[in-house]
Amino acid sequence: EIVLTQSPGTLSMSPGERATLSCRASQSVTSSYVAWYQLKPGQAPRLLIHGASTRATGIPDRFSGSGFGTDFTLTISRLEPEDFAVYYCQHYGSSPRFTFGPGTKVDIK
Amino acid sequence: EVQLVESGGDLVQPGGSLRLSCAGSGFTFSSYEMNWVRQAPGKGLEWVSYISGSAKTIYYADSVRGRFTMSRDNAKNSLYLHMNSLRAEDTAVYYCAREYSYGYQKNYYYYMDVWGKGTTVTVSS
Predict the structure, then answer these.
(1) Under 8 Å between Cβ of B121 and A45
(2) What residue of B is the nearest CA neighbor of A58?
(3) For A61-94, what is each residue's pLDDT tens digit?
(4) Which of A12, A45, A76, B78 has the fewest CB atoms within 10 Å of its CB?
(5) CB contact under 8 A, A30 and B47
(6) Which of residues 96-115 of B touch A (CB under 8 A)?
(7) Which 8-state DSSP code applies to residue A109?
(8) Dist. CA B74–CA A55, nearest whole Å
(9) Do the chains contact at B115 and A42, CB–CB below 8 Å?
């Protein structure tokens, strides 16, 4: 089973700053199986990135994804007030079907 | 508008049962594979179960196998999660999510592109 770790656990940032979130897999994975989601309390989770680097429909271009092998990154180029949330990386596998990282909380400094 | 709406969450005693529902709209429900994902208080996301469009294939996480049963009624655009022998550790917000997959240039992509807002299950005496 692939285990995903995310760092840092919490990122304290100011609006306008650049945020870099890391997701590391316990072994090399297929990039097309990696996605990123945004969660806010009381809201439906939102798909941001799939295939490690493809923005989902309607996602602003300040969000970008990159990486391959075991290391993947979600970058938010200029934080907007609505971007303060928790972010999860995800891997598609055989069993379990989907695995998530523990999440990175981006909060306001 | 493509939408998923969960319902059925409640407070239930340990050992009890509950049925969650998820209503889909704005898309051809039967054409999509579906999943349940949960988030326990203060924890991250955990995949729970999967069902194919025809309901012929169903998978479960080890933590719920033998206690939870996933099903769907495509005529009603609805998804269900029957939960038995509930434990305190099943306390969570349960989300239904549409799975999207495609192949492109020898690569295959799998992710969940539409989610509901969730329904809360609390297992406590």
Answers:
(1) no
(2) B113
(3) 999 999 999 999 999 999 999 999 999 999 999 8
(4) A12
(5) no
(6) 97, 100, 107-115
(7) -
(8) 30
(9) no
Helix (H, G, I), strand (E, B) or coil at B31: helix
B59-105 pLDDT per residue, tens: 999 999 999 999 999 999 999 999 999 999 999 999 999 999 998 88
Cα dist from B20 to A55, A79, B8, B23, B121, whole Å: 31, 36, 5, 10, 9
DSSP H or E stretch at residue A21: strand A19-29
Which distant-in-sequence residues (6+ apart) come within 8 Å of B104 by Cβ? Answer: none
- Outline where DSSP puts E strands in B26-106: 34-39, 45-51, 58-60, 68-73, 78-83, 92-104
Chain B residues lying within 8 Å of A21, measured CB to CB: none
- Which among B29, B72, B30, B31 is positioned nearest to B49, based on CA atoms? B72
Give me the long-range contacts of B40-43 (CB less than 8 A, separation at least 24). Answer: B40/B89, B40/B91, B40/B92, B41/B91, B41/B92, B43/B92
Q: What is the DSSP letter of A56?
A: P
Q: Which residues of B touch A74 (CB under 8 A)?
A: none
ω before A8 within 30° of 0 (cis)?
A: yes
pLDDT at A95: 83
